[in-house]
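Sequence dictates fold. Next comes a concrete instance:
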Amino acid sequence: MPMSMLSTTLWQAFPTACQRLRGMLFPPACVFCACPLERDADSAALPCCTACLTGIHLWPPRHCQRCGAVLPLDGQVLCGRCLRRPPAQVSTVSLFQYRGSVRQAILAWKLHGWDAAVLALLQVAETAVRQQITADDLLLPIPAPLARTRQHGMHHTAALCRQLARLCGCSWQWRWLLRQGKQQRQSALSASARRRNMRKAFALCDDYRPALDDYRRIWLVDDIITTGSTMHYAACCLRRQGVAAYAWSLAHTPDDGVS
């Protein structure tokens, strides 16, 4: 065999050999619990074990278009609460229920910086995300308190916006919506206390207000929606400036009975 042909053959076989070597040294593992997977799991849409896969629950399609709460009956558009006193955002979209494997993935990301499972969830939901967010939209991450951002070493919702923007080809800006004042951690408060806690937590940077008119829709992005207070008051901040806001979250805390 001529030397040039041998070199070509070896070069073509090199990627396959590297792939096999990688599989031997680093066998595939579940992105949620890290347990070993079968050798062909690398080609799966979501590399996870059966137990973790069954722990992923989509947010039900039968939900209130305004606040995102699950609706009891087909054919409803708004829940009773939104008919009486709707939140400031125009609509609310969530991908997953905040429980099981999704909760595990978000906590691992926020507390330890392990983002593999969150990135895998976004990748497998790419089609749905592209239907929700278009290229002429703008993403604004819900800002976290500065002290918490320094503690964790990252702005989680900004990182989430970055990944969404890559999937959808849209723009995102992390400096336009600001956090002001000092608030307690939402997770330690009741629903009524959460509303009081976030009432004056946000401000829109005046320098960027005219630029908001260049976009079709403005999405407020958060990792988790629980009572909806954070989204409501962030949307209030935009509404006072004459800007309609849409709410998007990776996960939504389910009410009792959601399945």
Observations:
- DSSP finds ten helices and seven strands in the chain.
